[in-house]
Structures are given as structure tokens and as C-alpha cells.
Amino acid sequence: MKKKLKLKEKIQKFRAWRERPCKVAPMSTEEHECLNCHDHYVGKYCPRCGQAATTQRFSMKVAAENFVNEYGMGERGMFRTIRDIILRPGFLILDYLRGMRMSYFAPFKMYFLLAAISLLVTHGLNITGQPLQDDSEADKVEVSAGKDAEGTDKTETDAAKSFKEEYPRQAKIHSIVYGVVNKMERFAQKYPSINILLILMLISGNLYFFFRHSPNIPDLRYPELFISLVYIANMYTIYSIVFSFFGLTKLTSYAIFLTIIPLKQMSGYSWWRTILKTVTAFTIMFVLFVLFIVIAVSCIAMFVRAFGS
After folding, report:
1. Any bridge partners for residue 147, and if so which?
2. Given Cys at both, which of 68, 81, 237, 305 links 114, Cβ 3.0 to 4.6 Å?
3. 32 DSSP β-pair partners
């Protein structure tokens, strides 16, 4: 009975900590002398030249801290941001949107940093020591299907030739559509970070319609929702890096369901209402995407009929 009570107390304390905004440490009243301009001041940074009050002689610890800060990982609470984005992601987003910008790592800077780390883990910096994705496999599949590494046909079956002869317009439409899809796939593979940002822009458009008047942020703006999705993408990338590092790549696909947690915490809706709004938004986006494909193919067909030979 006592263990259950202690567990309940710990859960209540965790929930209270999770919902409490980040606390900024009070400024010290200790006076410092700047080692750069020798000005005397109170605070963490010299008001004259901007050098930190913690500047000291080099040691292994100081050198390591400088290396971390040089690449942006020690500035603006990088490790605090990682902790909060795992334990209280939605409340972290609320803090950031409400103006606590210096307490957390910038979302876009964190996004590209995590993308670089994820790339290293995927290409062999993991517990297995082997690349998790073999780029040559896709080329082997294409070659076996009659295509070389550049996506061009090496061989052409008799059925394909007869189809081109009997239905030249349909074959031309197929060729154009395949070329566009192939270029989109190559762009996504070459620039995955930019591709994900473009996808987030599309997703945020539908989600904004459903979350713009949420209880926690009744006047939510579209840029704020987009920033929130970038932080949510960072959360997913962290889980993906951890799972990939230990070779648990199958769990990475299931981590996408964890993104519902920050949406619930940020919006203030109930679990079922958050899930319903999210599923509805993605369903509408899928229907619009299908309609876009149908319209695009129809336009290509009209163009081929009008100007094709």
C-alpha cells in the first residue's frame, strides 16, 4: 500500500514538473572582471565586449565545452531541450511559443544537427558498425527490372513495344508521369532534410485548420504551428537515432505514433479529440493528394493530345 502511495506521489510530482514552465536561474550578484577588456560588471556576460564570465584557463573540460559550443550543441540549453522534448514535448513547445526562446535550442538549428547525426548513424556509426541502408540495393532492383542506375531502360519487352505502337499517347503519358515521379524520388533521396520540411509545410496546412482554436492557444498562428511541427519532427528524429543506433530499426516506424503526445499537450484537447482531429487532417490531406495526382495526370493527357505527335 505504501509503495502504491509513493508511486502515485512520484507520478503527481512528475506531472506537476512537466506542466510547469521552464525556470530561469536567478542572476548572480557576484562581481566579475572581464579577462578581455578588464571591465568590472555583475552578470554572466560582460556588457562592454560580451565575453562570458565563465571564461577561464584551458583544461580538458574547458576544451571539450568550447568544442561543443563551437558546433552549437552547448548553446541555449541543447541538453535541456533534448530532455524536455522527450519528457514534456508539448509543454516545451508552449514555453517556446510563449516567448522563452533563450531557454531552448532553436528548432531549425536542432533539426539540421539531428539530421546530420541521423545520417552518421544510418551510414555505420551504430552498435552494429554496418550501414543500415545499402544504396546499392535500389540500383540492383532497378537493373534487375531492366533499368540502369540512372533510371533509363536497358531492355524493352515485346509487350512494351507493342503497347507503344498501338497506344502512343498513353505510352507518352506514362513516360512523362514516370519521369516526374523518378525525379521527385531522387530529390527526396538526395535532400531528405529539405524534403521533410516540405512535407511538414503540407501537413501543417491541414492541422492548422483543426488546431487553430485550441484551449491552450486559442489564437494559434500558422507559423507557430509549423515551428511546433519542426520540434515534433526533432522528437521523432531523436527516437529514430536511438533505435537505429541499437539496430532496432523496426521500432522507428512505430515511433511516429508518439507524435500525438506533443499535439495533445500543446493543444490542451483530450486524447480522443486530438487523435480524431489528427486522423481527420491526414485523411483530408490524402484525399487532396489523390485529387492533385488525378488532375495532374489529366492535364498531362490533355497536353499530349493537343501537342503530342
Report:
1. 153
2. 237
3. 41
CB 27 within 8 A of CB 44: yes
pTM score > 0.85 for this model? no
Distance CA 238, CA 87 (A): 12
| Nearest-angstrom CA–CA distance, 90 and 161 | 56
Retrieve residue 268's grid coordinates: 490542451
Backbone angles phi, psi at 33, to 5 degrees: -115, 120
Distance CA 15, CA 42 (A): 36
pLDDT band at 135 (very low <50, low <70, confident <90, very high): very low
Bridging pattern class, strands 40-42 and 31-33: antiparallel
- Residue owning grid cell 488532375: 295
Tens-digit pLDDT profile for residues 33-63: 898 998 999 988 888 998 888 787 777 877 7
204 neighbors 229 (Cβ within 8 angstroms) = yes
Whether the CB-CB separation of 65 and 74 falls below 8 Å is answered with yes
171 residue type, one letter: A
User: Are 31 and 47 a contacting pair, CB within 8 Å?
Assistant: no
Q: What are the grid coordinates assigned to 180, written together?
A: 516526374
**DSSP helix/strand/coil, 31:** strand
> Among 225, 263, 226, 258, which Cα is nearest to 240's?
258
